[in-house]
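Notes taken during the Thursday session

The instructor put the following on the board and asked us to keep it in front of us for the whole hour. The protein is RING-type domain-containing protein. We were told not to look anything up and to reason only from what is written here. First, the residues (232 in total):
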Amino acid sequence: MEEDLVIRIRDVNPHIVCSLCAGYFINATSIVECLHTFCKSCIVKYLQSSKNCPQCGTQIHETQPFQNLRADRTLQDIVYKLVPGLFENEEKRREEFFKARGVSKRVTEGEENLGPKLSATLNNGQAHQYKFDEQVCLCLERYSPQFVDCEVGRFQLPSLDKKFIRCSVRVLIVHLKSMIIKKLDVPETLKVCMLCDETELEDEMSMKQVYLMYWYCRPSPMVLFYRLKEPG
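Then, after some discussion, the predicted structure tokens were revealed:
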């Protein structure tokens, strides 16, 4: 009988801790030349005064170092899986950041339930199992028949011929929007928005985030709605 392999969090800390802030990666971002990874905010701030990797000294780009940075969403997903409460705390911190500056977040409804949903996820016995490039099943439904006036006349948003899809949990909302716009020939002057549980979703949200926040413990497929954004 095979024994379960137990890995202590301190054993993997060197691989998931930012050397600039000594905290766990938030928005993990790697340097293309050397593949060293840091928090996005940390490396962006660092590169304002230096053009070399803070770990190995490799020159990034003499004039445009930010072009050689790449988001590492797989690593960030692993970090959220390994460190209980990190995702939840980061969402709360972001909420406090926007609130302190009087800026309205696009996702507002249902955020009061964010804590319990994520806590339930992190306390679940299987919450920290990780599979490379996990897949999620989606059902993309038209929110309602819509007629919107635009430069090409009166446009009605049709339904997708194939509304069931399977994609990586790393896919972003903005990617789904682009696919819908292309498949439904939405005029360039119109914008599409996506919703889950009557809440409009931010472009940079991944399917993993949407699932954890709005669909955890609910049956597959995860249902997302799309509709046209009213002009003005």
